[in-house]
Amino acid sequence: MEKVNLEDKFKQFNDYWSPKIVGDLGKYQIKLAKFHDQFVWYHHNNEDEFFLIIKGSVTIHLKENNQEKQYELKEGEFFIVPKGVEHMPVANGVAEVLLFEPATTLNTGNVKDEKTVSNLKRI
């Protein structure tokens, strides 16, 4: 058991879109990531995804029933993307984000590209 200071953890890395594991809760992991600009469109077949904005702001773009929706998230707000829903986070500048998701969750979901991180670092 140990206390975790999010500000200290965010200071330990500068790369974008590469989540870092900061805790485990059963079969779930608590991850931190820095977002910058636009990510990729993707979905998770089996996992829901929780985004909590710690610093900055992020727009979550969703494609659902052939319509695109956008949700603007500010500091202290969170959003849960249900499994199977195609989405794309876009940071307005740089954002610091806490992710809470099953340990099996791949950052790019069904997409494999240069932003895919298969082996997450623990900090």
Automatic annotation (TrEMBL):
Pfam families, from UniProt? Cupin_2
Lineage: superkingdom: Bacteria
Per the database record, which ranges form the Cupin type-2 domain?
A: 38-97
Q: Which PANTHER family match?
A: 16.7 KDA PROTEIN IN WHIE LOCUS (PTHR36114:SF1)
Which protein are we looking at? Answer: Cupin type-2 domain-containing protein
Look up and give the organism this protein is from: Oenococcus oeni AWRIB429
